[in-house]
């Protein structure tokens, strides 16, 4: 449903700018990292799993997601990628005038600082290397919108910063190590979350081409984009077979529920093919991502 009559800089305007529905994408990698760490903590001394560090990881992920959303809202409007007349996706705060540009600049500074304050204590739990990770998260939150997404490298950043970094670092903060199982789980998670970017870029492919935004869909074409969407879901489930080898068969089997839903969304995406109606697939993909996170996490914990 389209939002109308939003007062400038109102609480509702800021809530829409924060895009709360995207927080599931931030939560899922942390969930999986924590579930892996909790399972493996039994091989270490009692009480090794730290709940304070777990909460900090989750809050940092939320803060960085909101920060990235603000950055994306601001710079896409400034760069002309969010045209009010031609935009097919959900409306954006700056483009609609719900949030003034100066206010958004201040909000970006505030959320960036908040993320740093939340993340800094993780250096106590995970070591000083966590500071470098935090700096990289902040830097690439800006570079994603201002550079990488225009060069067709957005999917690579999703794989890294919604897969490798949050899953592996969340695990590392708890146990100060990681394994091939954790690495493969992080890649699988990144692939699942990349589906959200794929359907978003699939919907916007014509507008992105006109705006000079060379996403992977613009470069490869719509048909390749459809196959890529299907492929990331299948690839994630195949990588999940490593859980079975490590004594967690449910973590391999339960994600088949996700795969079924992913295939249904793919078929709907293929049928709709273009236009605003693809926002239905965007919403379903976000739902599927959260279901994947739940399936993997429960599969690991139910032993």
Question: Overall pLDDT, averaged?
Answer: 91
The amount of helix comes to over 70%
Shape: globular
* Sheet/helix structural class: mainly alpha
Order of helices and strands: HHHHHHHHHHHHHHHH
Beta-strand content bin: under 5%
With helices defined by DSSP (H or I, 4 residues minimum), what is the helix count?
A: 16
Residue stretches low in confidence (pLDDT < 50, at least 5 long) are none
* β-strand number: 0
Radius of gyration: 19 Å
From the N-terminal CA to the C-terminal CA, the straight-line distance is 42 Å
Instruction: Profile the largest sheet.
Output: none
Notable features of this structure?
mainly alpha; globular; 303 residues
Could you walk me through the main structural features you see in this protein, from its secondary elements to its overall organization?
The chain has 303 residues and is an all-alpha fold. The chain is 75% helix and 0% strand. The chain has 16 helices and no strands. Helix 2 (23-40) runs antiparallel to helix 3 and helix 9 packs antiparallel against helix 16. The longest helix has 28 residues, at 51-78. It is globular. The mean pLDDT is 91.
List the helices and strands and how they pair.
Elements: H1 11-18, H2 23-40, H3 51-78, H4 93-96, H5 101-119, H6 122-126, H7 129-146, H8 154-175, H9 180-203, H10 205-211, H11 216-220, H12 222-239, H13 241-245, H14 249-253, H15 255-272, H16 279-301
Helix pairs in contact: 2-3, 2-8, 2-9, 2-16, 3-5, 3-7, 3-8, 5-7, 7-8, 8-9, 9-12, 9-16, 12-15, 15-16
């Amino acid at each position: 449903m389209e939002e109308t009559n939003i007062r400038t800089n109102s609480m509702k305007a800021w809530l829409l700018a924060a895009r709360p529905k995207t927080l599931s994408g931030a939560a899922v990698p942390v969930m999986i990292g924590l579930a892996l760490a909790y399972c493996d903590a039994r091989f270490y001394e009692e009480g090794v799993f730290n709940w304070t560090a777990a909460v900090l990881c989750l809050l940092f992920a939320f803060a960085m997601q909101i920060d990235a959303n603000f950055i994306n809202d601001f710079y896409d409007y400034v760069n002309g990628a969010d045209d009010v007349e031609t935009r097919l996706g959900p409306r954006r705060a700056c483009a609609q005038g719900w949030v003034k540009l100066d206010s958004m600049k201040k909000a970006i500074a505030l959320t960036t600082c908040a993320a740093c304050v939340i993340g800094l204590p993780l250096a106590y739990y995970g070591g000083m290397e966590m500071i470098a990770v935090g700096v990289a998260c902040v830097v690439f939150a800006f570079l994603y919108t201002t550079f990488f997404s225009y060069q067709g490298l957005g999917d690579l950043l999703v794989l890294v910063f919604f897969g490798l970094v949050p899953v592996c670092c969340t695990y590392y903060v708890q146990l100060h190590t990681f394994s091939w199982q954790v690495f493969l789980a992080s890649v699988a998670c990144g692939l699942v979350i990349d589906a959200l970017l794929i359907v978003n870029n699939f919907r916007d492919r014509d507008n992105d081409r006109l705006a000079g935004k060379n996403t992977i869909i613009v470069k490869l074409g719509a048909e390749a984009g459809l196959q890529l969407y299907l492929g990331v879901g299948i690839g994630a489930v195949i990588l999940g077979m490593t859980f079975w080898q490590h004594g967690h068969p449910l973590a391999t089997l339960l994600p088949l529920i996700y795969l079924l839903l992913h295939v249904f969304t793919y078929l709907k995406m293929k049928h709709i093919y273009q236009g605003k109606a693809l926002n239905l697939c965007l919403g379903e993909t976000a739902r599927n991502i959260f279901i994947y996170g739940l399936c993997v996490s429960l599969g690991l914990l139910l032993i």
